[in-house]
Design a protein that fits this description.
Bound molecules: ligand LLZGTKA7
Number of strands: 10
EC number: 4.1.1.23
Oligomer: single chain
Structural class: alpha/beta
Catalytic activity: orotidine 5'-phosphate + H(+) = UMP + CO2
Number of helices: 12
Keywords: Decarboxylase, Lyase, Pyrimidine biosynthesis
Distance between the termini: 29 Å
Helix content: 40-55%
Pfam family, one: OMPdecase
GO molecular function: orotidine-5'-phosphate decarboxylase activity
Strand order of the largest sheet: 3-4-5-6-7-8-9-10
Amino acid sequence: MTESGQATQVSPGETVPAGAGFGARLRASMDSLGPLCVGIDPHPSLLASWGLSDDVKGLEAFSRTVGEALAGRVAAIKPQSAFFERFGSRGIAVLESVIRQLRGSGSLVILDVKRGDIGSTAAAYADAYLDPASPLCADAVTVSPYLGFGALRPFVGKARENGLGAFVLALTSNPEGAAVQRAVAADGRTVAQTIIDEISQVNAGVSPMGDVGVVVGATVGPTGHRLIDLNGPILAPGLGAQGGKAEDLRAVFGNALDLVLPSWSREVLSAGPDQAALRAAAERARDSCASAIAVTA
Ligand SMILES: O=c1ccn([C@@H]2O[C@H](COP(=O)(O)O)[C@@H](O)[C@H]2O)c(=O)[nH]1
């Protein structure tokens, strides 16, 4: 969105109307650049294999290289906050510069930070990640509903106010998640389904899709959950290093495939530090997902 009220360019040749929400911007970006989010996860082992030191200098070089290779070429880029936080305030300063480098590049920035707290504290987190005045403001943020979906309202409100978004954990890619997320609530629905249904209500009637999405791992197998009414994006991590495969997407997401934003980190990042090799790895990931999604789209 521009202050002058003009259309915003989300990628070369692709514009969305001024004031468009995150869902509309992500839809335009996915339609134009393909269904792919690449994570920036500077693991110590990746820094080493790139020939970088496991310190702030290495972190900075790694993140800048990924940004230079992929900004504007993939629908979304997802910095994993943990790998920046491990270096304290200097790591956070690098995260701020990564966000500055990427925002407005045509690739939307999803900050993977999985925040969630009582509502009054959640409001402060929302100020940190979803207020344009903050140096950590991203296009969208990941949030955890463990304190109840209602406690996430400050994120939803702030996102809508600023044309930004939030992804709520529903069925995570790690095997431990199922014990909590698939537990059955008093009304017979799983915990994950109650979250999905709350979000469906928030997104109802928004075109082309709403600003609040869910995280559902590509590793979870056929979800057994109703995602078709979500009307919001589904961030699907777990591809590559965690064993998820593009060919699995159809079985996992069924009739909600069109909403899926597949996310890859280590598998793509391990192609670096050569920028052409990183781009080629991202293109392979995108093309494999696009073919899997096109089967039923
Ligand atoms: O359910 C979830 C939610 C988030 N993640 C995050 O995505 C990346 C995955 O990295 P890979 O290297 O592709 O395994 C990482 O930042 C996780 O924290 C997830 O994996 N599963």
